[in-house]
Amino acid sequence: MNIPGSGIIKGLAVTARNFLGSYVEKDRLTTEQYPEERPKLPENARSFPFLVFDGEDPEAGMRCVSCKICEKECPPQCIYIVQDRDAAGKAIKRPKVFDIDISVCMSCQICVEVCPFESIRMDQDYELSSFDRFGSLVLGKSRLLKSNTYYRNIHPTEAAETDARLEADRKKKEAAAAAKAAAAEKAAAEKAAKAAVEPEVKA
Amino acid sequence: MTCEFLKACSADPMKFLGEWFVLLPALVLLMAAGAAVVMRNLIHAALCLTLSFIALGIVFIALGAEFVGFVQLLVYVGAVAMVIVFAILLTKPERLTKSVSAFSGLGPAGGAAVGFVVLAALLGFIFTSPLAKKPLPTPASAPVADIGQALMGDYVVALIAIGVLLTAALVGAAVIAMEDKP
Amino acid sequence: MDLLERAPIELKSWFLNLLGSFGVPQGILSVLSAVIIIGTVIGVFLGLFALMSVMERKILARAQNRYGPNRVGFFRWRLFGLFQPVADGIKMITKEDLVPRTSDRAVHFLAPVVMMIPALLVLAILPYGRDMVPAELDAGILYFFAVGAGTEVAVFMAGWASNNKYSVLGAMRAIAQMISYEIPLVMAAIIAAMISGSLSPSAIVAAQGGFAWGFVPQWFVLTPWGFTAGLLFYIAALAESNRSPFDLPEGESELVAGHLTEYSGFKYATFFMAEYIGMFAVCGLLVTLFLGGWQAPLPFLTIIPSWCWFFGKVCFVAFTMVWVRATLPRLRIDHMLAFAWKFLLPMSFAAFLSAACWHYAGRGPLAWLLSLAIVGIPYLILGTAFTNRFAISRRTYQFSE
């Protein structure tokens, strides 16, 4: 026979076990103590886009060529680009202004998909709160530019893939250049040989 | 004079407080009871009545009748006041404005006259009763145990009769309330 | 040891003697003595309230495998979040005090005050230790319930003055609940008073003194009738102080916050404080009536001062209340009232009878068995009937099957 009230005792036992257990078994407490303990983000975690640069100098190593494809493709239109011009007023392949309004950005990653220069990538930084509603949430070029080393750190697989592709591109280009140079050399040599022959003919 | 007054106060403040402790709640009692009659807002009137119950309890306690005072608070504030309030809350508003008393045609003067007649009758009975001719007993707080013994000894029949009466009232109320059910 | 036992009393008389030596008149000193006692009692209970407000959250959290509040500390020392009440207090005081435009302003303002008065007044009659009763009343237990009746008025005032349907509904539920549960509460208290032959809390504690066979305390809770009455008192106390699983006057799922809906800021804090102090007072009365008051559980433990035992027991009872809150879901209003009238009330009569039999059968082992039978059999019958009555049946759906 079921003694009335035994259910309450069982329930109390369960809560007591949890109460005491939480002091003994650390595994029970799954809460992360945030500022001291930080979550280990999965590799594919993403927050907002950033710009990748190679080497040490952000301006010199900038991959972005100011093609403005991302600006056009961005669904919420949070990217704003102004192309840089040299002293003579001729457009150069470098952005003068590159702003992303992260209060508008929806982290869709379309900019990353469309970038032909492997220049824009997704960041993992999530501590972006500020005391200011507008200014600090529009990230300028200086805050957006992060080194390729950083990129390799946060997305290792993806970065390796990108690096391999860039390397292959570079090699192909080099090969093409070498072939071209070789062809030019050959042509020059032929020309020289011809020239050497010609005076003889003239003579 | 003020100086003497203060000296008297500081010499035995407890006695001084004790005297005021009877007068003040008595005053509150009168004012609250008056307000309960005069107030237009029914809930305010009920709350004033509750206040007068509380003040009456405190008067009892101040006069040394601890047990009666506590019972007054427990029964009147805890139960009767709440029953009154519930009755007001559960009554439809239109019934509150419509007067249903048989004496409502008399007007304020008639009401006052009825009140005075009742008061005079009460006073007459009180002063002509044999109890009034007895000398006042010395005010001493009776131990609760003695009151209990008296209730269970000499007055046990009365106590049981009241109990039966209240039970009958309770059953009656339940029967009336159950009428709605099919 | 004896010094520690009498420390609070000695400290007070030392202070008063010091003032007396400076020529302060005797009359002022006697008033000052009362003020010191009142101040100490209120101060201790406010401290307990502050501690409880953070400990309750921590205990609930631990029961759910969380940490609970552990941040607020003093500058860079965290102190396990024990400064949380300070932060809560600052928040409550600086919050805007909203009063609805259509509310009854005077009554709306008075309700928290009226709520606070009985909560503080009932603290007067609890025996906090040996010879430590602020007001030694012959009818102390009666005083406790008489003054406690004021709480219902306050709840009604709060609910009605807010001019809000949820407030009125919450207040009506709260009053219905308080009136229903007051009967088993008082019945249970009467049983303890009946056995000790007095309504005075000190006499009831004294009746539970001493040890059987030299080591078993003679607390009422250790007898069958006392255990039943104590449990009934505990359940009714949970309902009286609006605590889970009887917290449905504030059931946020249907009534927003019951009679507290239109209160904010310091007025809300006052209600909150009054509720917790009232809860501690009821725990104190439970300890006094059934758990032996300030008596130590074992003879050699009497070296620990009596007031430590009292507050230790009060804290233990308060802890079990949080434990129950962590365990049981909220009841439905009809279940709750049926539970009061159809289960607790008959059980309190059974406990009453059992206590009487225990007394007249000579308080020996035979009396023990007899009283166990008198409470045990009705419990099994009523409990089974009650669980069958409210057993969860398989739900059938009209359309989806």
Present the secondary structure layout:
The complex is a heterotrimer of chains A (203), B (182) and C (401).
Chain A: H1 6-24, E1 49-53, H2 69-73, E2 79-85, E3 91-101, H3 110-114, E4 120-122, E5 138-139, H4 141-144, E6 145-147, H5 148-154, H6 156-202
Helix pairs in contact in A: 5-6
Chain B: H1 2-11, H2 13-38, H3 42-62, H4 66-90, H5 93-97, H6 107-128, H7 130-133, H8 144-152, H9 156-178
Helix pairs in contact in B: 1-2, 2-3, 3-4
Chain C: H1 2-5, H2 7-21, H3 26-63, H4 84-94, H5 105-121, H6 140-148, H7 150-161, H8 165-196, H9 201-207, E1 211-212, E2 216-217, H10 224-240, H11 252-255, H12 265-289, H13 306-327, H14 333-360, H15 365-389
Antiparallel strand pairs in C: 1-2
- Gross geometry of chain A: elongated
Helix/strand order of chain C: HHHHHHHHHEEHHHHHH
List low-confidence stretches of chain A.
Answer: none
The beta-strand count of chain A equals 6
Number of helices of chain A: 6
Number of strands of chain C: 2
CATH class of the largest domain in chain A: Alpha Beta
Q: What multimeric state do the chains show?
A: heterotrimer
Mean pLDDT of chain A: 86
In total, the number of domains of chain C comes to 2
Indicate the radius of gyration of chain C in whole angstroms.
23 Å
- Morphology call of chain C: globular
Main sheet strand line-up of chain C: 1-2
Largest pleated sheet of chain C? 2 strands, antiparallel
N-end to C-end Cα span of chain A: 129 Å
Within the CATH hierarchy, at the fold level, what is the topology of the largest domain in chain A?
Answer: Alpha-Beta Plaits
- Given the helix and strand composition of chain A, which structural class is it? alpha+beta
CATH arch. level architecture of the largest domain in chain A: 2-Layer Sandwich
Description:
The complex is a heterotrimer of chains A (203), B (182) and C (401). Chain A is an alpha+beta fold and 203 residues long. Chain A has two domains: 49-154, Alpha-Beta Plaits; 155-192. In chain A, 43% of the residues lie in helices and 15% in strands. Chain A has a three-stranded mixed beta sheet with strand order 4-1-6. The longest helix of chain A is centred in the last third of the chain and has 47 residues, at 156-202. In chain A, 16% of the residues are buried. The model of chain A has no long low-confidence stretch (mean pLDDT 86). Chain B has helices at residues 2-11, 13-38, 42-62, 66-90, 93-97, 107-128, 130-133, 144-152, 156-178. Chain B is 80% helix and 0% strand. In chain B, helix 1 crosses helix 2, helix 2 packs antiparallel against helix 3 (42-62) and helix 3 (42-62) packs antiparallel against helix 4. Chain B has nine helices and no strands. Chain C has 15 helices and two strands. Chain C has two domains: 1-94, no CATH class; 99-386, no CATH class. In chain C, helix 4 packs across helix 12 (265-289). Chain C has a two-stranded antiparallel ribbon with strand order 1-2. Chains in contact: A-C, B-C. Chain A binds chain C through residues 1-5, 8, 11-12, 14-16, 18-19, 21-23, 28-31, 33, and chain C through 59, 62-67, 323-324, 326-328, 379-380, 382-384, 386-387.
